[in-house]
């Protein structure tokens, strides 16, 4: 409580940057920013590219496990917009997601209206964009330093300063080699009174920077942290638009462990598209009897004809479904079975299959549930049905259908783009899946997996 928080905004004189606090409408979460470039006009191609860039980057940075960072560019010169977005390694998941989400919502418009270029430090994340390529080059034009005056009873400033310097210099030299471009560490020392002390440090660069740029950016900030104003502080940070440095005495810095992990599925956006060809009289998901459909059913179709309760067809069907699921689960024949039971006109034919990427436990669970009559809730009394559970597929009918592909409908799900070089990704994906599609038919078990590497092209990247 007795310590004092000091904030210093340092800007090199040659830049026409706008300092914090000049405009009333700037959100509080904005700690520092600079605008650059000329203005774009409303509705221009540049504005469209910029909107696209910012929303793609923030969605991708929030959705995937790639360490809360994204860089990329959209469009072609002269309307090309390049940018990056990054959460600070010591911001927690909530704060980071909140920050990324807000960055897409056009808060920026209040900050740098119509400006073609901008760098902005929110509390938890950093957003930059420009019309000229800047990725790969550190911006050391300005920084925001904040620190606390020495904690009470801290003695031996000389040793503290020296230890801090040694720790942060070491981190600065090594962080460039880190794929996620951040590094934390600590350094213990004994002060003149014989008391043990520990300095904790964190350094981080934006991930577009090559090692040398990252290190030189941090060296620049380390000098700022050694200014007379800050030299005796026991808790401080220097935030720029390309790198970040923080230190604390006797108080570990929380690193966001989730930097390495995919965030909870709920916070990402899973897109689901159900496509139905118009010519079919199928029952779609979400109709009146949707309430009793189990959650594991992802989509299904039913025929229009009913069987009679207690009739021969129903008996054959019960026999069919239980045989299918038992045999598919019991033998080693690749979790597939197709069978017919009975004779016309009460003959029931069917197949059951687990998806090749389903785990054994999930597959067995799925096959077991199918035999338990969940289906009756899905298509009560219907003679034919196709149903996709999460892990397996069941089809049956009174009409012969084995040997004929049903391409009448499908359920597509996907994650928002994680790659900026969509063209190369799409080309590679198309090539790979085409090859697999050509060869899968010859496979005894009718499945095939594969992979194809490609090199991303970063439009607008300098190195
Ligand atoms: C750019 O747009 C802002 C706000 O729309 C305006 O205040 C500023 O004068 C413009 N700058 C130039 C150089 O046109
Ligand atoms: C995340 O950080 C914010 C801002 O510092 C803080 O208010 C919040 O309590 C933190 N949440 C967790 C789960 O640590
Ligand atoms: C995000 O926006 C909401 C609503 O305007 C605001 O309450 C919150 O503080 C913002 N968070 C950040 C990190 O900017
Ligand atoms: C600082 O030292 C004094 C005297 O030894 C002690 O009374 C006080 O509690 C200490 N303050 C802190 C924050 O440790
Ligand atoms: C802090 O430590 C650095 C590195 O040892 C040194 O260059 C600098 O002069 C020190 N500053 C003070 C005020 O002791
Ligand atoms: C870095 O931070 C993590 C998480 O806060 C911590 O577990 C780890 O010990 C730290 N590493 C060092 C070298 O201090
Ligand atoms: C830092 O602390 C030392 C020792 O307490 C003191 O001699 C020195 O004047 C302080 N430096 C500044 C810039 O306040
Ligand atoms: C088929 O059975 C369902 C459920 O038992 C019933 O609601 C429906 O009216 C029946 N349709 C025909 C054509 O009999
Ligand atoms: C199987 O049924 C059980 C009990 O109704 C349910 O908890 C589980 O999620 C179902 N599993 C699948 C894969 O449908
Ligand atoms: C994706 O690749 C396929 C095959 O090369 C091509 O036909 C299609 O137009 C591409 N789509 C986009 C959006 O680039
Ligand atoms: C196919 O999947 C298996 C099992 O996950 C894996 O070991 C193998 O490497 C994959 N094959 C290719 C070509 O990716």
From TrEMBL:
Taxonomic superkingdom: Eukaryota
Signal peptide: 1-21
Family annotation (CDD domains): Gnk2-like
InterPro entries cross-referenced by the UniProt entry: GNK2, GNK2_sf
Gene3D superfamilies reported in the protein's UniProt record: Gnk2 domain, C-X8-C-X2-C motif
Segments forming domain Gnk2-homologous: 28-134, 141-252, 295-401
Pfam families (UniProt xref): Stress-antifung (PF01657)
Keyword Repeat part of the UniProt annotation: yes
Keywords, sorted A to Z: Repeat, Signal
Name listed for the protein in its UniProt record: Gnk2-homologous domain-containing protein
Native organism taxonomy: Eukaryota, Viridiplantae, Streptophyta, Embryophyta, Tracheophyta
């Amino acid at each position: 409580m007795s310590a004092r928080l000091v904030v210093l905004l340092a800007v090199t004189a040659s830049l026409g940057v706008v300092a914090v606090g000049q405009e009333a409408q700037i959100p509080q979460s904005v700690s520092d920013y600079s605008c650059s470039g000329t203005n774009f006009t409303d509705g221009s191609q540049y504005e469209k590219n910029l909107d696209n860039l910012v929303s793609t980057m923030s969605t991708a940075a929030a959705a995937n496990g790639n360490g809360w960072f994204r860089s990329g560019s959209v469009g072609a010169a002269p309307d090309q917009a390049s940018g990056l977005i990054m959460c600070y390694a010591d911001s927690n998941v909530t704060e980071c997601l909140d920050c990324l989400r807000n960055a897409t919502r056009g808060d920026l418009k209040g900050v740098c209206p119509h400006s073609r270029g901008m760098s902005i430090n929110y509390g938890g994340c950093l957003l930059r964009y420009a019309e000229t390529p800047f990725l790969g080059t550190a911006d050391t034009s300005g920084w925001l330093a904040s620190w606390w005056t020495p904690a009470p009873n801290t003695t031996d400033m000389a040793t503290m300063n020296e230890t801090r310097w040694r720790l942060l210099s070491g981190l600065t030299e090594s962080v460039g080699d880190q794929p996620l471009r951040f590094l934390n560490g600590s350094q213990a020392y004994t002060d003149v009174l014989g008391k043990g002390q520990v300095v904790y440090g964190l350094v981080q660069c934006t991930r577009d920077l090559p090692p040398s740029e990252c290190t030189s950016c941090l060296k620049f900030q380390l000098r700022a942290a050694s200014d007379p104003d800050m030299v005796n502080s026991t808790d401080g940070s220097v935030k720029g638009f390309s790198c970040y440095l923080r230190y604390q005495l006797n108080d570990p810095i929380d690193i966001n462990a989730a930097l390495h992990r995919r965030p909870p599925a709920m916070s990402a956006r899973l897109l689901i598209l159900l496509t139905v060809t118009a010519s079919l009289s199928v029952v779609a998901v979400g109709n009146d009897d949707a309430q009793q459909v189990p959650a594991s059913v992802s989509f299904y179709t039913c025929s229009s004809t009913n069987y009679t309760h207690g009739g021969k067809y129903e008996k054959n069907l019960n026999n069919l479904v239980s045989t299918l699921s038992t045999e598919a689960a019991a033998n080693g024949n690749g979790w597939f079975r197709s069978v017919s039971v009975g004779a016309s006109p009460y003959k029931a034919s069917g197949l059951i299959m687990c998806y090749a990427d389903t785990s054994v436990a999930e597959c067995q669970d799925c096959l077991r549930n199918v035999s338990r009559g969940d289906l009756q809730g899905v298509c009560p009394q219907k003679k034919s049905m196709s149903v996709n559970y999460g892990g397996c597929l069941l089809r049956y009918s009174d009409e012969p259908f084995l040997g004929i592909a049903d391409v009448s409908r499908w359920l597509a799900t996907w994650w928002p783009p994680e790659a900026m070089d969509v063209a190369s990704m799409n080309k590679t994906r198309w090539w790979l899946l085409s090859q697999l599609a050509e060869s899968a038919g010859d496979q005894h078990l009718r499945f095939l997996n594969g992979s194809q590497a490609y090199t991303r092209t970063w439009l607008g990247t300098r190195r």
